[in-house]
Design goal:
37% helix; single chain; five-stranded parallel sheet; seven-stranded mixed sheet; alpha/beta; 17% strand
């Protein structure tokens, strides 16, 4: 079966059929249990990496166990010829999975979370480690027994999203290895169609000035963009510009209490060329206020901000403007965080400031 390549901004995604150990990418990805036993059997990806890379990979991994479900750790690549690192995605932790299931989430929510979260974490590690190439297998389709169609669906969503949101030049490989010859090319048609559609959409959106129906204005001539060293705020505000009135009210509350904040009110930091400013603003902050509404939970910009904040271990304070549920991609991350009902904000100013000051002073 021939390989297929898709372009996202400056990056490429190549879907290949074959053995992931043939890849020459800097990073090779494996899926494993929370103790990284690399026991997927010789036919499994983790077992094959162990056989080819040696015990050094295992020894390095054991320094970091146990690893939470959906998380990723980076280890040496041992004696693998082309790779610098192995990223181990944790897809097997029966106890933790059952705990998640008791939190009023479905099996589908759990699978979507761990697959997308694992892919997102791989890209975060790549950025932190200044790497530019990575090879993914079908994460969790082996010993974790996650249905291949679910794996393909969620991984393609997460990979395409990460490539669409970076201006770096990355080379990503997605290996599909049907060791039992039970799938035909038609089984992968949905994957090919989805990736082609996502790549086309990214190309189309590059020429647009709006995303998520939130207004994004071009940067005016002479606008001075802040750098990270000049940022002194304590709080990052994540919201949909459809909720501008509430955001303005919140800013006034923070200002009256002497709390410095960051908010993108004009939309000049939301275009693809200015994502680094959003990242820096979240990194500098000590807490993130999430104005949760039907509007914000439908905005991919807001969801990316909250997802990044969670991954960077930033405390998130949800202010609930309505009864809309959290977007699925962040539901598991923040479902256990205490909410502040902000439908009548005047009565809740004190509770907000008390909660915020507690977080800032920790």
């Amino acid at each position: 079966m021939e390989q297929r390549t898709y372009t996202f901004n400056q990056s490429t995604l190549t879907v290949k059929f074959g053995d992931i150990l043939d890849s020459q990418a800097e990073v090779i990805v494996s899926s494993d249990d929370c103790y990284v036993t690399m026991g997927g059997g010789h036919a499994g990806v983790s077992g094959a990496i162990y056989q080819a890379g040696g015990e050094g990979i295992m020894r390095d991994a054991q320094k970091m166990v146990p690893v939470p479900l959906g998380d990723v750790i980076a280890t040496t690549a041992g004696t693998l010829v082309h790779q610098k690192y192995v990223f181990h995605c944790i897809t097997i932790d029966k106890k933790r999975r059952m705990q998640m299931m008791t939190s009023q989430v479905t099996e589908e929510d759990v699978l979507n979370y761990l697959l997308q979260h694992a892919v997102d974490k791989c890209f975060q590690l790549m950025q932190a480690m200044e790497l530019t190439s990575i090879a993914f297998p079908a994460i969790g389709a082996g010993a974790a027994r996650i249905p291949i169609q679910k794996v393909i669906e969620q991984m393609s969503i997460a990979i395409a999203r990460n490539l669409a949101n970076t201006n770096r030049s990355l080379n990503v490989e997605f290996y599909l290895y049907d060791i039992y010859n039970i799938y035909s090319e038609s089984d992968y048609i949905t994957l090919f169609e989805n990736l082609a559609a996502k790549a086309a959409l990214v190309e189309y959106q590059q020429g647009l000035a709006t995303t998520d129906n939130d207004i994004v204005l071009p940067v005016q001539s002479g606008t001075r963009l802040p750098d990270r060293n000049s940022m002194t705020h304590k709080v990052f505000i994540s919201y949909s510009r459809k909720d501008q009135d509430t955001a303005d009210y919140l800013c006034n509350i923070l200002k009256e209490n002497g709390i410095e904040y960051w908010i993108d009110k004009e939309g000049i930091y939301s275009s693809s060329n200015y994502k680094e400013f959003i990242v820096d603003a979240i990194d500098v902050s000590k807490a993130v206020i999430f104005i949760s509404s039907e509007n914000s939970n439908a905005s991919s910009n807001v969801i990316r901000e909250i997802g990044y904040a969670v991954n960077m271990c930033k405390p998130v304070l949800p202010l609930m403007l309505d009864d809309a549920p959290y977007a699925k991609s962040i539901r598991l991350d923040i479902s256990d965080i205490d909410q502040i009902d902000f439908k009548n904000p005047i009565e809740l100013n004190k509770k907000l400031i008390t909660s915020l000051m507690y977080v800032l002073n920790k």
